[in-house]
UniProtKB/TrEMBL annotation:
Residues 45-211 form the Reverse transcriptase domain. InterPro entries: DNA/RNA_pol_sf, Rev_trsase/Diguanyl_cyclase, RNA-dir_DNA_polymerase, RT_dom. The gene is pol_1064. PANTHER family: REVERSE TRANSCRIPTASE DOMAIN-CONTAINING PROTEIN, TRANSPOSON TY3-I GAG-POL POLYPROTEIN. This is Retrovirus-related Pol polyprotein from transposon 17.6. It comes from the Eukaryota. It comes from Vitis vinifera (Grape).
């Protein structure tokens, strides 16, 4: 794992995102964690299908827990997913833009840089730009993005973190909207990842949902993985299933009522007993996920 850390440190040094620092009262340790790219089904030693997380690579993280405990929380609200989906759905033309390197686009004021100090086998370093792991990083980034596009949000585009969705009711209108947004990106030095941008399409995936002129749909690929999840035999398994299924609860009428037998298994000190009610709930939720309707945003 040291090689993973070494490569990451060299990359950040060459990009001038971090710099060596000799002393700081704020020093956090590094961790190497698997970078998960989703879930899939595999067979265990007994030949049973079980879910597992795919690990495509490794990510170097800084453990900022001690720093976060003494940090005053920023209560700037993140957008509600349902509201974002309703505003962007129902249009015939879209552009999907993706910000490059997310938090690293934001500079940290010099007097606060030493607070980001981390140590690793190759030295002690501090960040010039905002790293992952800080408790206020998501809200700070969202506030910045909204300040950049405040006069455009809810009119010609939406922004959720580094995902930018531009829409229009006509081809030419959408093209004009794109030009306005790109000019603003140039003006504010906001860098985009062109490999992840999609131009003039009729539908796309936004926050785990498919949006189009017809409305909002579930992502079929995600539903297929949920349907393949095996019968839960532990509380952890039940919680995992409910977490995945609950992501699309807006598409299932009376979801809370249907999921109640499974939710009862999550109560503290309750004995885990998988009965007929649980089996029915498990199978019914899977069935309903495969027959979800297209949801239209209210006029």
């Amino acid at each position: 794992m040291q090689e993973v850390v070494r490569v990451e440190v060299l990359k950040l040094l060459q990009a001038s995102i971090i710099y060596p620092i000799s002393d700081s009262p704020w020093v956090s340790p590094t961790q190497v964690v698997p970078k998960k790219s989703g879930i899939t089904m595999v067979k265990n030693d007994k030949g049973e299908e079980v879910s597992t997380c795919l690990t495509s690579s490794w990510r170097v993280c800084i453990d900022y827990r001690k720093l976060n405990t003494v940090t005053r929380n920023d209560h700037f609200p993140l957008p509600f997913i349902d509201q974002v989906l309703e505003r962007v759905s129902g249009h015939p033309f879209y552009y999907f833009l993706d910000g490059n390197s997310r938090y690293f686009q934001l500079e940290i004021v010099i007097e606060d840089q030493e607070k980001t100090t981390f140590t690793c086998p190759f030295g002690t370093y501090a960040y010039r730009r905002m790293p992952f792991g800080l408790c206020n990083a998501p809200t700070t980034f969202q506030r910045c993005m909204l300040s950049i596009f405040s006069d455009m949000v809810e009119h010609i585009m939406e922004v959720f973190m580094d995902d930018i969705i531009i829409y229009g009711s006509e081809f030419d209108e959408c093209l004009v909207n794109l030009e306005v947004v790109l000019n603003r990106c140039i003006e504010k030095n906001l860098v985009l990842n062109w490999e992840k941008c999609h131009f003039m399409v009729s539908q796309g995936i936004v926050l785990g949902h498919i949006i189009s002129k017809q409305g909002i749909e579930v992502d079929k690929a995600k539903v297929e993985l949920i349907v393949k999840l095996p019968l839960p035999t532990t509380v952890k398994g039940v919680r995992q299933f409910l977490g995945h299924a609950g992501f699309y609860k807006r598409f299932i009428k009376d979801f809370s009522k249907l999921a109640r037998p499974l939710c009862e298994l999550l109560v503290k000190d309750v004995k885990f007993v998988w009965d007929d009610r649980c089996q029915w709930s498990f199978e019914e939720l899977k069935l309903l996920l495969t027959t979800t309707p297209i949801v239209r945003a209210p006029n």
